[in-house]
Amino acid sequence: MAKALPIRQGFVDALPICLGFFPIAGLFGLLFKQAGFNPYLAPLFSLLLNGASVQFLALSLLIGGADFSYILLAAVPLAIRNSFYGLSLYDRYQFSPLVKSYLAFGLIDESYSLITIKQKYTGKEDAAYCLAISSSIHISWVLWTIVGCVAGSFLPTIKGLEFAQTALFLVLALEQYFKCRDLRLFGWAFVAFILSYIFIPSHFLVVAIALYVLLISFLPQKQKVAVS
Amino acid sequence: MNQDIYLIKVLICLFLIVLGTRLLPFICLHKLKDHPLAKKIALALPPGVIFLLVIYSLADTAFLSYPYGIPEILAAAAIIGLHLRFKNLLVSLVAGIALHQTFLFLC
What we know:
Helix content of chain A: over 70%
Low-confidence stretches of chain A: 223-228
Distance between the termini of chain B: 44 Å
Oligomer: heterodimer
Shape of chain A: globular
């Protein structure tokens, strides 16, 4: 069976995420502009940081007038969770250093979830496919930020746009479930969440991820786990 | 102008942090990659992480005061139902966000 061109397929598969970024990136651009900062810098933030959590954190701290070093320090726990993502894709991302570097940079929550589910190609085709996904997600993230900045002048703030992030993650989580078919993993993640939230609520996300890694290390492997 | 320069300084430092953390596994894992645990963790990581991200994104919702997170819970339930039924990323996403805005408006 002939497979579709990997680059084209990458754009197609990433499309829902690219569209789903509209409320989130738009909100960032909007808030950035309404905070009184130079709107030309907002898309630059999106271009160089490529990630909602770090960007929103930085923005709220900048608005609040936090210390320079505090902003950097606060960003580290948020950024470090992306280091875990490389664990899953290390083998697959065995490409040239330039390609590998950009793919690593593009490894944000959404692209991580999408790429780990879709394993249709190998070798150079896989590189093209992952590049198409990562770059379209990155570019749309920047473009929607620009839209948010521009629209900031015209639109009143719409409440509750943050839910778009939840909606996106929820849909991606369901897709992950369809692939792994193992509810126990979600169970262990929930346990990790409870424990981390009780003990270190201020940074529960990165602690929960670390805890989750520990928990699954000690679990017997489920026999049916698909290996591509 | 001063503020712009300050923002750019913050941005560049954040960029280095972000880039460093994302490149880290690809630089460091060279020795560890053949460890038997590595494969198990690599496969099991995505579902757990994304699940935690769902919870993380709801962390700021005020569940203890009106409207008690009801729009979020209802919209999330709708998304789950829609996605299990139609398995369409775009439909579930758009409908979920629209429903959430509706519930928010109704509350």
